[in-house]
Amino acid sequence: xxxxxxxxxxxxxxxxxxxxxxxxxxxxxxxxxxxxxxxxxxxxxxxxxxxxxxxxxxxxxxxxxxxxxxxxxxxxxxxxxxxxxxxxxxxxxxxxxxxxxxxxxxxxxxxxxxxxxxxxxxxxxxxxxxxxxxxxxxxxxxxxxxxxxxxxxxxxxxxxxxxxxxxx
Length: 168
Hints:
- This protein is an alpha+beta fold.
- The protein has helices at about 15-25, 90-105, 110-115, and strands at about 5-10, 30, 35-40, 45-50, 55-60, 75-80, 80-85, 85, 90, 120-125, 135-140, 145-150, 155-160, 165.
- The strands form four sheets. Strands 1, 2, 5, 6 and 9 form a five-stranded antiparallel sheet that branches. It has a five-stranded antiparallel sheet with strand order 13-12-11-10-14, with no helix packed on it.
- Strand 11 and strand 12 form a beta hairpin.
- It starts with 5 loop residues before the first strand and ends with a strand.
């Protein structure tokens, strides 16, 4: 076992931050990768930070004699992930790759995070055109130009990003 390897803990639903804080208070080194995501909340697009791996976090003992046994009874933690009787270990190289992916994603702009891109089909969810579908022509920070079939012809309509969802 490499002392630089990381263990994997499974947390209770939406308790990653609680488990992370409690493990840190016990002297464990922890890593909870989070990604910037675009969510629709009350008809608005909101940027949020969410765990990259919901219900999982990485930890390692703070020193060589530090036992991982208390992790199982830590508030917010369900268990230590195991393969048979052996705890799952993640190499430092894999953790570095996860960290690099996290950094790239978190540097993205709202336009890059949005599923609404030129060429995608969208449906209007708010306003007088609610329920109508169209094809995205262009996207800017707050506005989207959508090609819609209105009154027998194709027309470009400027709409707020928050009033659109990707068509299913």
